[in-house]
Amino acid sequence: MLFEEAGSTGKPGEPIDDTYYKVLGVDVKATRNQIKKAYNALVIKNHPDKGGDREEFEKVREAWAILGDEEKRAAYDIYGKGGASQVSKKRSKPPPVTITIDLTLSDVCRGPERSLEFYYSTNACSTCGGRGTVDTQVQIGPMVGIAQQACGTCDGKGYSDSKMVKMTKKVRIPKGIASGQKIRLSGEGHQLGLDDRGDVEIICRVARDPMFERRGADLAIKKQLSLKDALCGFAFKIKHPSGTMLTVRSKAGEMVNTGMFKKLTGWGLPQKGAYDVTGNLFMSFDVLLPVPGSITPEKSQSLAKILETLTYPKEKEHKILTFGKGARVKLNVEHEEMNGRLATILADERSPEGFWPIQFDDDSGQAFAIPESYLELVKIESVEIKSSIKDEDDADKEDVTLEDVKGGMPQFTPGDADEGREE
What we know:
423 residues; elongated; 5-stranded antiparallel beta sheet; HSP40/DNAj peptide-binding domain; Helix Hairpins; alpha+beta
C-alpha cells in the first residue's frame, strides 16, 4: 500500500477511512460520475510522462481501483482499506465450461493435439476488455503521452451486457489419459462481472477397443490359434494402438494351451504423468480344435501314431473338499497336545451351535465336538464309498459316449424335485 492507515472520522454515517476520497479531492458522498471525472483529471495532471509525480500518480490509481468499484467502495466505507482488499480475495469463479471429447486407444498412446471449439459467456466491456480503464493520448507540449482514463463505454465498471463468444483452442491430450479424467484450462471460461474468470473443463471419454482390453497402463488381448499352430509354432501380426505392426512369433519347440498367458514387455500404454513408464501387453490363447467330421479314420490313425509318441504331464487328481461325514480334518487350536492332530468327521451335518463331531485317527479313539473354525480339511474320503468299492475285475462295466451340450452351456438338474415349483 502507498498510504499509511488513516484514523476513524468518528462521525455516524460516514466512512471510517476517507483517505482515498481526499486523494481524489471528492466528498465522501460523491457520485460515481463525480469520482470518475476527478480521477481522469488527476491522472492526466500527475502522469509521469507529463512531468507529474509518479508516487502521486500511483496513489490516484489505487484510490480509483477502490472507489471506482461499487462493491469495494461499500466495503471500504465500512471497514477501511482492509475490508476493500478482502472483497478482492473473496471473488468467486463462475462454473466451468464443460466439454466432452471422444478418444481412442491410439490417442491414449500418442497424446495428440486437438483443436476444440466452445462458447463462453462474458459481460466484459469490449472497449476496455474488462479493465474499467482505457489508454488515451495526452498532448504534453510538443510531445504526446499516454494516460489511463475510466472507460466511457462501461462507465469504468469493466462489464456491460452479457454475450456468448466462440473460442477455438488447441489442446494437447496427455499420453495415458483414462476415460473420465479431466483436462482443465484455467482462466479460459466464463467472464462475468467482478468474478474471476472461470475455467474450461474437458472430460475425456476413451472408447472401448474391439481388440484390446485396457487395465491401467496394461493391455490384454485374446488370440485364437489353430491346433496346428498351438502345437507346431505360430506367427501372426497385430496392429498396436500406437500404429506399430507387431509380428508375434513362438519360440522353437514352444506349445501353448487354452487359457495360457504370455506377455510382451513394454507394449502396453504410456503411464499418465510418467511417459518413461509403459505397461505390458498380455495375451491369452484359445486353441481351436478341428471341426467335427474333418478328421477321417485314416487321418485319425495317423494322428494317433504321432500323438502317442509325445510326453504328457501327469494327470492331476481333483478332489472336492467339503465338510461332512467321512471328511478328514486337522485341528488348528492353541492347545499344544491337540493342535495338528488328524481326525474324521462322524456326522453329515454340524450341530445348531456350529460344532462337528470328530474322532481322532490314532489308536486313542477319542471323540470330541469341535467348532468348524478350528478345523482344516485335509481330504475327502467317505468311509461308506471306500468300503463299497469293488475290485476292478468284479466291478460293473459299461461303455459310455459323451453327448453334445445343446447351446454350449449346461442346464443343471435341480437337486430337489420340488425345487422351482410354486407353492
